[in-house]
Amino acid sequence: MNKKIKILDCTLRDGGQGLDYNDHIGIKTEAFTDSEKLRIAELVRDSGIDIIEIGCMSESSIGRERFAVYENLSDLCRFLPERKDPRQIFTGLYIDPDTPVDKIPEHTPEMVDGIRVILRYSQLKKSVDFCASLAKKGYKTFIQPMLTMRYTDDELKMLVDSANEMGAYALYFVDSFGYMDERDIERLYRFYGEGLDESVRIGFHAHNNMENAFSNARYFIENLADRECIIDSCAAGMGQGAGNLQTEIIVDHMNKHYGTEYDFDCVLEVCDILEKFRSHDMEVWGYSPLRFIPAVHKAAYKYAAAMKLDYKMSLSEINKILSDMPLEMRHRYTADDLKKLLGK
Asked: What is the pTM of this model?
């Protein structure tokens, strides 16, 4: 039985952002060619996956197209593949709510169907208003509160009410640091479900710092998901830091247990394309003790990466510093905060 689960593949978007960050901090990595970006989008389309995210956007993204990070919506839509199944949805993601709304065109059939927005926690009203403006322009709007575990019940209630008011396509909870467990997933799902209109889907975006992405997704599907829901994934688990739920794993699971007919071979062809990114001394994504330790302390993984790469610290030294870290610093990495922690 198909439990009304849609899969959203964000290989190009989350994977591209991961490559972009590694390039920024000096880790040598390959980049997508234009032909690879289009081919990945075509293969994901041909797999029958329900929602396909082809990249992200920010006004500060000049010169980063090789990582599927674009300056504007028109640039992103150049990599929109030919549509074959009218039921499939194509999306792009705004990294922040800073793009002036009047620069974003009204939706037309030639553009992506939907837009996801990463909410800025320090500017929630601005972020939510940005989402509402996109909905008014005709886009299916996905509300993406990163690190959802930091939100208070009052803040979550505001998101639920706003999603209902704007007629959002989906409201997500996001395990940005990869430490959520089944109790956290159930609490957030129930909280959303009590207030969200049935027309607003509940989305779940998992990271794999503790290698719980698939088990958490399976729990979500088997024990919750009593309405239309969305599960995010990336081929080969590609993504920022420890990466994401693997598309090939969730596709195989859904085909075997819920009667879906996703084309597994198409997903494997995407995995083949991504092999070139894994041929370096340091893995650009995936589980590692270095990416596990920040999840233990519910902190941004970028702290551990910087301590290892820039300061050559051992894992035990990193663990000690993160264990003593003030709570207010854990939610967002800054180089200045790291220097304060290290007494530099």
From this structure: 0.92
